Amino acid sequence: MTEPRPPQPRQRFQSFDDPSHRKGAERIEALRAALREHGIDGFVVPRADEHQSEYVPADAERLAWLTGFTGSAGTAVILMESAALVVDGRYTLQAPEQVDTGILTVVPLAESTPEAWIGVNLKRDQVLGYDPWLHTPDGLARLERAATRAGGTVRAVPNLVDAVWAGRPRAPAGPVVLHPDALCGEACTDKIGRIRAALAEGGCDALVISDPHNLAWAFNLRGSDVGHTPLALGYAILPREGLARLFLVSPEVDPALRAVLAPIAEILPRAELDDGLGSLAGVRVRLDAATGAVALKEKIEAAGGTADVGKDPITGMKAVKNAAEIAGARAAHVRDGASVVRFLAWLDGAAAAGGLTEIAAVEALEDFRAAGGDLREVSFPTISGSGPNGAIVHYRVSRATDRTVRTGELFLIDSGAQYPDGTTDITRTVAVGTPSAEMRDRYTRVLKGHVAIARAVFPVGTTGAQIDAFARAPLWQAGLDFDHGTGHGVGAFLSVHEGPQRIAKTGTVVLEPGMLLSNEPGYYARGAYGIRIENLVLVEPRTIAGGERPMLGFETLTLAPYDRRLIQPDLLEPEERAWIDAYHARVRETLAPRVDAGTRDWLERATVPLAD
Length: 612
What we know:
35% helix; Creatine Amidinohydrolase; globular; Creatine Amidinohydrolase, Chain A, domain 1; alpha+beta; 6-stranded mixed β-sheet
């Protein structure tokens, strides 16, 4: 007998209300009326806040409110006679289900960018509006080129979605707290010194920190202004000499944080940011190309400063985890692994008994994590997809879409947690009943690609793009592929999706020891089932006997069994099988002492060596 499901925690970190709607025609018409009032012919609505963040506060969910699309990436372009929603490969199935396709044309990013669509659909002499807080200088340049090709122009205007959004939520303002040095591994004074050295090397006098993740890392603070990521919204101006100035949205700052920052920084309200930018006359200011808004650049230049648009040096520093952060990640994954294994053991029994729903599975997993201790949040809304819903890459279950897990199907669950010592992200695909031969073939090919990344050894200087194909090769051999990256960077009690490193065709950043990434190839049979297998991995040095060059490899941090019922052993090479057996032995040895007797019995069965 496995462990019973724990009692429900006091507060759930995710809801199942369906935020999508079919009011697209009504809301888009209201926006068009506002366009007419301002004398413009169109408006661009990105899925972004003023920091270009993936997860945004409720008052910045403009794209979802306007269109009904709830994905984490996408851009709508609303013209008077036509409108498009451009989404990437993760959302090509989800978007048409959520939006009114009679009003909005869903355009896959692989077929057309927002700028390409504008170039074709904007008419000569028409004016396209944009909010300068929601676009970077590079993004604006692309819009300008697209409008010029069409014979039109662009114009900065107040955000017109806000003008027609009745009942728009208030901006968040949660507590801002100190993240202790024991978990950060480096005092903020030392971090500021490194950042200033990088500014001097780049010939800049100051840095505007526009990314809340970088703000959190540099000043060892955490907040609760954004769901699933412990961020405090705001900005900082960091000069090469003198006090930094933090402009925080929330007035609720922990006295302990104030005391630590007092020697190096002044904490001010977000409303005083304009005054701070206005003091930068004659100053060369580095502005992050990825997150710095056009409005920031314009304000710096209006003050008589020079906006040096480039890389925020903090981003690269944050990506390389120090010894304390690595130790925290390992500890968090052991704790998380025990909770996930308890859930998987429970899931086997619940699915076999019948009546299990996608929502019930999400709630149970959160309960197991809460019972495991130190859970601060889920790191993203859990993807819980049974049967055909598993083929929707970023499916988010709602009460309207909730589906029963049925015998003969696959169930995909992609989830993660925020602990004070680390951030986790894991995907497992399990069989309910007896899987088909095709399911086992596809699962094993995905697993082969997953193992190829885990076992990869590569020279120092290698990028994620150079190893992305390792994960795809077993699928390519069968004429198959998947339409998302193989891996993303992960933060240390920060964003579950952290750059700049990634394993993808677009992963041009060199991988360095200390970087955390996901390893998550997949396969998706539209309308039938989805498969994804995900662990988090740590880049580490590797010694090769007789080797001539310094090499790197991956340490797998995630601990949970793969579903042996879905593995077709005759498709595996001996070294692949050996790696899986060794991994399963490590999972069993590490987690067995941390689970109840019933779960331990299940774990023993789930991790026995693969049969010939």
